[in-house]
Structure prediction request, 395 residues.
Amino acid sequence: MDLSYSPQEQAFQAEVRQFLADELPEDIAARVKAGGEVSKEDTERWHAILQSRGWLAQTWPEAQGGPGWGPVERHIFDEEAARAYAPRILPFGLQMLGPVLIKFGSDAQKAHYLPRILDGTDWWCQGYSEPGAGSDLASLKTKAVREGDEYVVNGQKTWTTLGQHADWIFCLVRTDGSGKPQEGISFLLIDMKTPGIEVRPIRLIEGGHEVNEVFFTDVRVPAENLVWKENDGWTVAKYLLTHERTGIAGVGFSIAAFERVKALAARTVRGGKRLIDDPLFAARLAEVEMDLEAMKIFNLRMLAEAQRVGHPGVETSMLKIRGTEVRQALNDLYRRALGPAAAVMPGEAPGGNAAVLAPEDEGAAASYFNNRKISIFGGSNEIQKNILTKAMLEL
Ligand SMILES: Cc1cc2nc3c(=O)[nH]c(=O)nc-3n(C[C@H](O)[C@H](O)[C@H](O)COP(=O)(O)OP(=O)(O)OC[C@H]3O[C@@H](n4cnc5c(N)ncnc54)[C@H](O)[C@@H]3O)c2cc1C
Prediction:
């Protein structure tokens, strides 16, 4: 196969690079580079800039407001955006619910919700996981009972990313408990302002507030908010997850992180010697570089295949595992390259180390700890290995 971009793809890459140079606000890029939390306002500002160029809903068909890109264009954008330290596009409305509504939603649901996702009116969050239902998602218990024109919802969701900002949540709920666990699940859209909803923060290991618990007590939801058929929400849920895993390897993030670690090691002097010339550090760096190069090639192979057949295959599981391992290894190297000063968390009294760290490096420890999550969410790496094993052994 040809591993280089075609002339058209190279022209597109140059266009994206120029767009980022012209349009990505410097203050936002600086915050992303420093590894801190990106605010709701930053995300909304960036979304609006992308939307004004028609590049926001990257996986949607053109008829619904997408840019008409294929997997290669999306990959090029991701790679360039990560290099430029653009914030990630928030996936819940744009990359998860949007494609679901386009495939399974009623005409009325499409007409109402899709434009509001595009113009930023509605901030969505994902209500799949529960305290007893993560990897084993089908064992979820949040119940929705039909009463006339409404469902009455009771139960709890957890790990709800950015639910504290959300206007709406899309939820998997149990509408029938009599059959197999996968049967009797429905996909419901719930307004977060409905009485009976309580959002409680969960602090992550680095102290950030990114995830929440969401409690539902007698929450009344109009029956018209059901997407697709009652008790067939599992079909919708699985379709959404294939979109969740696309791009999850974060190749662009790893390329940017690698360049950053290499530059840091080249300018850091320890014991009279540049860190990059230290044999142990250089060997570690070379190992990650080889893994990253292999992953880049594998990613391009997978993109070519997805372009050919129209959807990503089971190989996304392989990419997810290797992609997250490489990202975590780079976080580790970055922290090691910074030395003891990297142990300081944002907001922590830094003591004598404060002068050592450049502002853009202050978030190193926070990023290291925060990125423990990437091998867990979107289907943990162990679950991805199960998926691969089943596919390879044709079980
Ligand atoms: C930062 C963060 C953000 C998240 N955001 C959201 C969100 O917005 N919305 C949402 O719905 N969910 C979200 N999640 C939840 C995420 O999808 C789950 O954490 C994930 O599916 C794992 O489920 P669990 O945490 O219940 O772990 P468990 O399923 O209890 O797993 C615990 C451990 O056992 C392993 N394990 C479990 N089953 C098997 C098996 N069959 N074979 C081998 N190993 C197994 C797992 O790999 C894991 O290491 C988020 C999670 C995190 C950490």
Notes: The pocket of flavin-adenine dinucleotide is lined by residues 125-129, 134-135, 159-161, 211, 373, 376-377, 380, 382-383, 386 (CB under 6 Å). The CA atoms of residues 345 and 366 lie 6 Å apart. The radius of gyration is 22 Å. The chain has a mean pLDDT of 92.
